[in-house]
Write a structure and sequence with these properties.
Layout (H helix, E strand, L loop, with lengths): L1 H29 L3 H37 L3 H6 L1
Length: 80
């Protein structure tokens, strides 16, 4: 019975993915041309920059937390 449930979930996910891909493909075909390509690349690069900024700020926040927890100051690292 468990396998039947998981198989049903897999089929449902496959159908949803197929519909999303078909929708994206039709949108891409309607936006063909230099302007559509420029917009798509611009959105992609904007998303990448936003992701990189989020990663950087998360890293900085985590480093601050670790430094506080360990009692390490920035000046101590500068001497080494």
């Amino acid at each position: 019975m468990k396998r039947l449930v998981w198989m049903g979930i897999g089929v449902a996910i496959g159908i949803i993915a197929f519909r999303k891909i078909s929708e994206a493909q039709s949108n891409l075909q309607s936006n063909l041309g230099p302007e559509g390509l420029n917009r798509a690349v611009g959105r992609l690069t904007d998303g990448l920059y936003e992701f990189a900024d989020a990663v950087r700020s998360g890293m900085q926040e985590r480093e601050t937390d670790l430094r506080t927890a360990l009692g390490v100051e920035s000046q101590d690292l500068a001497r080494r």
